[in-house]
């Protein structure tokens, strides 16, 4: 989702706009830009990647009091400077959030314009310039827009020679902030909260004209609106959490959306999916490397890529891999997984691989991060900024991307047909449903939160999921937890099971279900408090105190449903224990040292 911030007032606009864009980082973006008026001239600055890149190219002290800024999340056209906002055509400079569906039609009326980008937004800028040249009246132009534009839009517009900021919206959010020192436009309240908590909510087809001391809002019929000012009572942090108690919970609930964004990025258009993945089929062996949750998701990836892609996969922890000697096949690929793209050990593996001339592919969330920049090829997930230290949404997006790699290889080698892609859309709906009712998980949290030790069991992919579930629980709730391959129990661990020891078993893999069920019986016989998370029919209710039921779907996607339940369990146990959930003790979000 793109982010918009604009300001006109008595203070210098550049720091205000940059602060606002940073507060909107949670929306996700792949480039950022700014336009400001300096001595009557419009200056444009745009950079691909982080807002940091844009800041490095800006003088914060410029005496400019009118400007618009934007973070772009690419829809029409790749992330590059040319496609970034603001767009400037003729007398019009603008930023846009939304999608203009009829931009090809509009373009036909713009033969006099030499458009340079691939975006729908530049077409809108040219179209507004054409209307402005015809009418010489910006208010009339804003009135006319709803007749001409089909789709969704929030626009912030500056016109050459006019010291005003114009705004209009339809089906994309836009607010108008007001303060003594000046007035603002923004996609969301956090962007203005440092300066004011008073704002107007612009409704569909309404438009506004802002100058340094005044805001005039117009109804869709052109009459002046008398709407009330809204006051945001919460803190900046509360605004960012969007009604959730913690970022972790907010991010858990964002998963249907960001998974949808991630899969759409790859499979919305099948031709471009095959183009993006092209070449992966040539590898005879793949090493997947990451740390913590990124390592765990690699284990799930291994199980899918081996089963469907029929490729030899090895998974390792980056801090081990970097100091181990490896034997590489002629066609060998190393996949580096990292949310931050800055993890020191993972980066070290990448650099070592490059020295040894092994091909590298990075699966990364943060655009423009070191791992993304240095790998031979990068596939981005679209999780958006993750603020809670414990990863949730990045893990599931990584899982989806690894699954898409497995599906690509499976289709290429004839093991799957491309009807499989339907499963990815299906999972978004199922995940959304499963997040609507969390009573079952909250009940389990109440059963286990006072225990000292919690065990997770599973076999094959369920073991990989158990490892992530256990990590999540221990890092946020501080309960001691271990994940065991169910078949290993008898080789030592079962001595730790006593009356009421919580044992959470994950059972999704049909091929091994009966074996895991036997192990569950063994822990039940020793008095364990057995909780089963499963998409199988388990009729013997002696085997569990609580059963968390999941729908049965394709193996390529079902792990997402399991892990989201486990994330919620970790969250609720941590909450009952009064832990600092978003910032667990001793942990950092980005681990840039060994
Ligand atoms: C656990 C967690 C960590 C990270 C690990 C790797 O919740 O967040 O285990 O997964 O530190 O970080 P990235 O993915 O940024 O390389």
Average pLDDT score: 94
Q: Helix segment count? A: 19
Q: Strand fraction band?
A: 15-25%
End-to-end distance? 34 Å
Major β-sheet annotation: 8 strands, antiparallel
The CATH architecture of the largest domain: 4-Layer Sandwich
Describe the protein.
It is a single chain. Helix 8 (255-267) runs antiparallel to helix 15 (422-436) and helix 14 (393-412) packs antiparallel against helix 19 (555-576). The chain is an alpha/beta fold. It folds into 3 domains: 3-237, 4-Layer Sandwich (Glutamine Phosphoribosylpyrophosphate, subunit 1, domain 1), CATH 3.60.20.10; 244-435, 3-Layer(aba) Sandwich (Rossmann fold), CATH 3.40.50; 437-578, Glucose-6-phosphate isomerase like protein, domain 1 (Rossmann fold). It has 19 helices and 24 strands. Bound molecules: fructose -6-phosphate.
Question: What descriptors fit this protein?
Answer:
Glutamine Phosphoribosylpyrophosphate, subunit 1, domain 1; 37% helix; Rossmann fold; 3 domains; alpha/beta; 594 residues
Quick overview:
With 594 residues, this protein is of the alpha/beta class.
Write the layout of secondary structure elements.
Layout: E1 3-9, H1 13-23, E2 31-38, E3 41-48, H2 51-56, E4 66-72, E5 87-89, E6 92-97, H3 103-108, H4 120-135, H5 138-148, E7 153-159, E8 165-170, E9 175-178, E10 182-186, E11 198-201, E12 207-210, E13 215-218, E14 230-231, H6 236-241, H7 247-253, H8 255-267, H9 270-277, E15 285-290, H10 293-309, E16 312-317, H11 318-321, E17 332-338, H12 344-355, E18 359-364, H13 370-374, E19 377-380, H14 393-412, H15 422-436, H16 439-448, E20 453-458, H17 461-477, E21 480-485, E22 502-507, H18 513-525, E23 529-534, E24 546-549, H19 555-576
Parallel strand pairs: 15-16, 15-17, 17-18, 18-19, 20-21, 20-22, 22-23, 23-24
Antiparallel strand pairs: 1-4, 1-10, 2-3, 2-4, 5-6, 6-7, 7-8, 8-12, 9-10, 9-11, 11-14, 12-13
Helix pairs in contact: 4-5, 8-14, 8-15, 10-14, 10-17, 14-19, 15-19, 16-19, 17-19
């Amino acid at each position: 989702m793109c982010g918009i911030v604009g300001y006109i007032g008595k203070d210098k606009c550049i720091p205000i706009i940059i602060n606002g864009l940073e507060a909107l980082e949670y929306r996700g973006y792949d480039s950022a830009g700014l336009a400001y008026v300096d001595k009557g001239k419009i200056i444009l600055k745009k950079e691909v990647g982080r807002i940091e890149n844009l800041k490095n190219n800006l003088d914060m002290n410029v005496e400019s009091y009118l400007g618009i800024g934007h973070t772009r999340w690419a829809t029409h056209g790749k992330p590059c400077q040319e496609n970034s906002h603001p767009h400037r055509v003729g007398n019009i400079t603008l930023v846009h959030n939304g999608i203009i569906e009829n931009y090809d039609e509009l373009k036909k009326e713009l033969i006099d314009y030499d458009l340079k980008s691939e975006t729908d937004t530049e077409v809108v800028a040219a179209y507004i310039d054409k209307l402005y040249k015809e009418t010489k009246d910006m208010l009339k132009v804003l009135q006319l827009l709803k007749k001409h534009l089909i789709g969704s839009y929030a626009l912030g517009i500056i016109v050459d020679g006019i010291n005003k900021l114009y705004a209009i919206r339809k089906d994309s959010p836009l607010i108008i902030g007001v303060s003594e020192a000046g007035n603002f436009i923004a996609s969301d309240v956090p962007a203005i909260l440092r300066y004011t908590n008073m704002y107007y909510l612009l409704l569909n087809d309404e438009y506004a004209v802002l100058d340094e001391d005044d805001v005039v809002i117009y109804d869709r019929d052109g009459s002046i609106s008398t709407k009330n000012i809204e006051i945001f009572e919460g803190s900046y942090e509360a605004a960012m959490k969007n009604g959730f108690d913690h970022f972790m919970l907010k991010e858990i609930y964002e998963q249907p959306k960001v998974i949808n964004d991630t899969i759409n990025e790859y499979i919305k258009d099948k031709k471009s999916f095959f183009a993006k993945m092209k070449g992966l089929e040539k590898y005879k062996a793949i090493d997947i490397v990451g740390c913590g949750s990124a390592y765990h998701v690699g284990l799930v990836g291994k199980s899918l890529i081996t089963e469907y892609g029929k490729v030899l996969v090895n998974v390792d922890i980056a801090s081990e891999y970097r100091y181990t000697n490896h034997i590489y096949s002629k066609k060998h690929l190393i996949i580096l997984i990292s949310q931050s793209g800055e993890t020191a050990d993972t980066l070290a593996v990448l650099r070592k691989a490059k020295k040894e001339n092994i091909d590298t592919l990075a699966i990364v969330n943060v655009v423009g991060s070191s791992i993304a920049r240095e790998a031979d090829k990068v596939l981005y997930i679209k999780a958006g900024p993750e603020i809670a230290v414990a990863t949730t949404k990045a893990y599931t997006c990584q899982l989806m991307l690894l699954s898409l790699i497995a599906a690509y290889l499976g289709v290429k080698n004839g093991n799957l047909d491309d009807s499989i892609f339907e499963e990815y859309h299906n999972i978004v709906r199922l995940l959304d449903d499963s997040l609507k009712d969390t009573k079952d998980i909250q009940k389990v949290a109440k059963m286990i939160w006072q225990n000292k030790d919690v065990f997770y069991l599973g076999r094959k992919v369920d073991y990989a999921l158990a490892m992530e579930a256990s990590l999540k629980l221990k890092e946020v709730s501080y309960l001691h937890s271990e994940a065991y391959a169910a078949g290993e129990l008898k080789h030592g661990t079962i001595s730790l099971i006593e009356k009421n020891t919580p044992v959470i078993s994950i059972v999704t893999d049909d091929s091994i279900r009966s074996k895991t069920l036997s192990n569950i019986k063994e822990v039940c016989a020793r008095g364990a408090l057995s909780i089963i998370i499963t998409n199988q029919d388990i009729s013997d209710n002696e085997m569990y105190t609580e059963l968390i039921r999941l729908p049965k779907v394709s193996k390529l996607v079902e792990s997402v449903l399991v892990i989201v339940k486990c994330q919620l369990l970790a969250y609720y146990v941590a909450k009952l224990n009064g832990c600092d959930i978003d910032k667990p003790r001793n942990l950092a979000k980005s681990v840039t040292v060994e």
